[in-house]
Amino acid sequence: MKSVVFPKSLKKGDNIAIISPAGAVEESQLTQTLDLIKNKGYEPVIGKHTFGKFSNGYNYSGTEEERIQDINWALNNSEISAIWASRGGYGCQHLLKHLKLKEFKKNPKWYIGYSDNTVIQSYLLKNDFASIHGQTIKTTSFGVSEESYTEIFDILEGKKLKYSVEKHQFNKKGKAEGELIGGNLALVYALLGTKFSFDFKDKILFLEDIGENFYSLDRMLMSLDLAGVFKKINGLIIGGMTNMGSENENKNYKAPFDEFAYEIIAHRLKKYHFPTLFAFPNGHIFDNRPLIIGAKVKMEVGEKVNLNF
Question: Does domain 162-308 fall into CATH 3.50.30.60?
Fold first, then answer.
């Protein structure tokens, strides 16, 4: 088994490519974070189609060909030191069969994003490269905590991650170690049965989601269960579950960690005994702390709840 490659740390003045591999984005929605990148001493380099528009049942940032062109430019340009997705949405699956890594393998770089970007991160890990599951350049309607971005820069600069989080009633106690995989549940689910799916054996699986009906949440969990995923993993981390069900009927609709969504997950997992951590601050939520996909992580779930990378 090959070891996972971690891109080298950035140095001041390095270029960070800004691309839109999925949904369309307005330049005004990125201004705050682009300024932050500059203030941190790095140079954002905007992809050719980052602010493009292509409507085809969904508002993409460009045609499939245009988005493929941008991501392959960012992956393989030797003058680019990291790649930061402007947003998620839908469309990253279009790119998977067309990604090129020839020059990337000579000069690996961090890929940063979450949500729909989960499929790009799965692809990179299948090729033995780590990536950062963290906040995109676009800030959301519910805002972004300062730490969400600060800790991404910490990773880019070579610092280690270490998290302590609050106990949760649905946690399952225990200790586990393994390579961290996962991301957005809908995309982990969408890749099942394909050659681009994560390898779940002996891994620590992370899942988060937004805007799903409760029955859809259960259906995706059932698919993972039927695929044998929960028999393979060493541990599970559940992040944000927000805007679930109907806003008119769900009193927890805007909560970052939806109580009923967590009940559904806990019920679906009750027959399994691996350590499980609920309410980790990562996902479509205000406090979206970065995780490293492909990193070895130790999780301790008990009176103290810790994640060490």
Answer: yes
